[in-house]
Design brief:
Blueprint lengths: L27 H4 L6 E6 L14 H9 L5 E2 L4 E2 L5 E3 L10 H17 L3 E6 L4 H12 L3 E6 L19 H8 L2 E6 L4 H9 L4 E3 L9 H6 L4 E7 L21 H14 L1 E8 L8 H20 L6
Parallel strand pairs: 1-4, 1-5, 5-10, 6-7, 6-9, 7-8, 9-10
Antiparallel strand pairs: 2-3
Helix pairs in contact: 2-9, 3-4, 4-5, 8-9
Length: about 300
């Protein structure tokens, strides 16, 4: 574990050490917006949660857990902190409902995307993906989405809204092509919609794939937005989620898939959603933070060693 960075110039006493409250606890030279390739935006929102709430606490838990990460990624031979990672303030929830919240997220992201930043959202429930995909689609007309989730999230509406967590993939599909991976639960409406529209799905059943990771990657355009619901992971590894589903990927399976995407496509933005830290051990928050760190590295290095 790296020694946590400090800001010796902060506070009334220059000698008093203060931990910067940002992802990886980076000093100003690696965390200012001007010096950063990547921007992380916390979205503490879980207003459409239908089973277990608590993902509004996810962004803060990821940021705090990131203090313990090593900055160096030996796989990519890259010091991730030197990419420059700017952590913004949290987007305030819009209490008028999930539709206005989608618009707010889209508006906030537009500024950073226009500046050429790789933007990642720290969720929060999976509904936050909708506004992010819409903002990225405007900047990247050839965008496609890799949607990693135990659930299809293809309902047209659920519990009275079309902008909730159970409809996030459906709304994203209306903006651009989408491929689903890790799916192991859906309703009949979703099953029929997927078949009728020939949406690529990698169902997570190690003994019987209807498709393969290679076919999923092959369905993606050059510019890819990666959306990760942490329940795509096995609950034995990631119990701290709102809607856990038996089975699932392990860490190396997930990271290997993302690395393959980065090697052949451009990851232009991402989100990591549905961490509900109170529902699992601290290791879950650390795992989520490390996934964010890997996505920043993959997006900014194209999945290849820098040396």
């Amino acid at each position: 574990m790296d020694q946590v960075s400090i800001l010796p110039e902060a506070g009334p006493n220059p000698a008093f050490p203060l931990i910067p409250h940002n992802f990886l606890a980076l000093p100003q030279e690696h965390s200012s917006k001007e010096a950063s390739q990547a921007v992380l935006i916390p979205v503490p929102y879980d207003s459409t949660t239908s089973f277990r709430s608590g993902s509004r606490e996810g962004p803060e838990a990821m940021i705090t857990a990131s203090y313990g990460l090593e900055d160096y990624d030996f796989e990519l031979e890259l010091d991730v902190s030197e990419i420059g990672i700017h952590t913004t303030g949290a987007i305030e929830p819009h209490m008028a409902g999930p539709g206005p919240m989608t618009e707010r997220i889209r508006g906030v992201l537009a500024e950073y995307i226009a500046e050429g930043k790789i933007v990642g959202l720290l969720g929060g429930e999976h509904s936050i993906t909708i506004g992010s995909v819409q903002a990225h689609k405007k900047a990247h007309p050839n965008l496609s989405v890799l949607y990693l989730d135990a659930h299809a999230d293809m309902r047209d509406e659920y519990m009275g809204t079309q902008f909730g967590h159970a409809s996030a993939a459906r709304r994203a599909y209306e903006s651009c092509p989408i491929a689903l991976a890790g799916v192991r639960s859906m309703c009949k409406e979703e099953h029929d919609f997927i078949r009728e529209n020939n949406i690529p799905v990698w169902y997570w059943n190690p003994n019987s794939y209807e498709s393969s990771p290679e076919s999923i990657i092959g369905s993606l355009s050059d510019a890819v937005y990666v959306s990760v619901d942490l329940d795509v992971l096995d609950p034995a590894l990631m119990s701290a989620v709102g809607t856990p589903e038996p089975g699932g990927m392990d860490w190396h399976q997930l990271v290997s898939l993302l690395a393959k995407v980065a090697e052949s496509r451009r990851i232009v933005g991402f989100d990591v959603c549905e961490l509900a830290p109170a529902d699992g051990p601290p290791a879950c928050s650390y795992t989520a933070a490390k996934l964010v760190y890997k996505l920043v590295a993959y997006a900014c290095s194209n999945g290849k060693p820098t040396s």
